[in-house]
Amino acid sequence: MAIPAAPASQCARPGDLAAALRGGPIVLDGAMGTELEARGVNTAQALWSALALIEDPQAVAAVHDSYLRAGASIITTNSYQATLPALIDARLGEDAAREVIASSARIALGVAGRFEQEFPSRQVIVAGSLGPYGAYLADGSEYSGAYSLGAPGFEAVHLPRIEALVGAGIRVFAVETQPRLDEAQWIVEQIRGIAPGAQCWASFQVGDDGERLAEGTPIAEAGAWAQETEGVIAVGINCVAPQAVLPALRILRAATSKPLVAYPNSGDAYHPDTKTWTAAGSAERFTARAQAWLEAGARLIGGCCRTTPADTAVLAAAVLR
Asked: Which Pfam family is one of those matched by this entry (predicted)?
């Protein structure tokens, strides 16, 4: 399998997150999986959104482009669920699996480069998405952190993905949806070893009160770690209920002077008995709280599960006004 790279003239620069943040708040993109579903891509399987890297890379590119046109300045690679063990389980050889992971970077960088050519005043940063080990397990433990760093396959999930993304040109990383502080610390250490000088943000899973990470560590400890760690440019939360964001930001603000990150879920309500969703109204949707997050110190603001380019446009109007 070969996924062609974009011409060099159409690839964005790796990006400097710290420099961009000195210019003010930045809008992140939103959900990938549900946007792929809306384009007819099958995500109801073990590889989830990563299957599109193999079967429909054009759809991945279209999602990236839609978020940029809605006002995002940072897009994240479709690599959250793209891990070497999962791709090998899907009957790819190791070389082909690494190629798939690298393609998530090439696709995003290509979209960013073409967008910058069309809109020269807009600089785009591409961040490599690094989800937790629990996402590979696909058993809900990405929301609990109920595993250890010594778990079988832990390094095999993380290291090849970092290597593939770095090899494809990524120098900014989203260490995201992290339920455990020790895992985020381990990932950042690996990034620093593989790509010295790379930058990242770390964002965590928290309970609805915003006070503790999913596995129980006080979020203040995550803020203190970020404050002292070179290469961690910003710290915050993602893939959480909108009501958890403000309490978490307030605790983090007391623990660190670094920029804060907030990209929660949409606010839609899930009904497990019927396996259906009720869309949040405008007052309940996460975008209604963006101004309060800015006032609390958030400088990277976007959306996670079930958010859309339409939400990104609302955020951009609030953040960039």
From this structure: S-methyl_trans
Is residue 2 situated within a structural domain? no
Q: Which amino acid is at 319?
A: V
- Segment holding 271, helix H or strand E: strand 269-271
Distance separating alpha carbons of residues 67 and 289, to the nearest angstrom: 20
The reply, when asked if residue 200 is annotated as ligand binding, is no
Q: What is the pLDDT of residues 285-296, one digit of tens each?
A: 999 999 999 999
Give the C-alpha distances (Å, rounded to integers) separating 312 from 15, 124, 219, 245, 301: 20, 15, 26, 17, 9
Number of domains composing the chain: 1
d(C-alpha 234, C-alpha 319), whole Å? 17
For residue 130, being part of any structural domain is answered with yes
Q: Would you give the DSSP letter of residue 31?
A: -
Does pTM top 0.85 for this prediction? yes
Q: Is residue 3 part of a domain?
A: no
Q: Cα separation of 152 and 285, whole Å?
A: 39
Measuring CA to CA, how many Å separate 9 from each of 113, 116, 117, 191? 7, 11, 9, 27
Q: Which of 153, 160, 111, 112 is CA-nearest to residue 133?
A: 153
Contact (Cβ atoms closer than 8 angstroms) between residue 292 and residue 66: no
Helix axes 219-228, 181-194, angle to 10 degrees: 20
Q: Is 11 annotated as a binding residue?
A: no
Tens of pLDDT along 204-257? 999 999 999 999 999 999 999 999 999 999 999 999 999 999 999 999 999 999
